[in-house]
Design brief:
The protein is mostly helical and 79 residues long. The chain has 5 helices and no strands. The model has no long low-confidence stretch (mean pLDDT 86).
Length: 79
């Protein structure tokens, strides 16, 4: 679950994005793929939620894709 401040920032960012991008982010389809990745790597729920949050932030344009690996290692403690 995202922190309140992160949720607020994400909501503001979603207002700035094209409708198609917002629809994709809010759809459950990509979420299923992330769940499958988490299952494949036996991620505990806490790390899976961190992965979902970081993927969402990249999709919303709040984290640059080039920084994804580093941020994921730091925020989700995935190395």
């Amino acid at each position: 679950i995202m922190e309140d401040e992160t949720e607020k920032i994400l909501r503001e960012q979603l207002k700035k994005l094209p409708t198609e991008v917002c629809d994709f982010i809010l759809s459950a389809n990509w979420d299923t793929d992330v769940n499958e990745i988490g299952s494949l790597y036996n991620l505990p729920e806490e790390k899976l939620e961190a992965l979902k949050q970081e993927v969402t932030l990249v999709l919303a344009g709040l984290t640059h894709p080039d920084e994804f690996k580093e941020v994921l290692e730091q925020e989700a403690d995935l190395r």
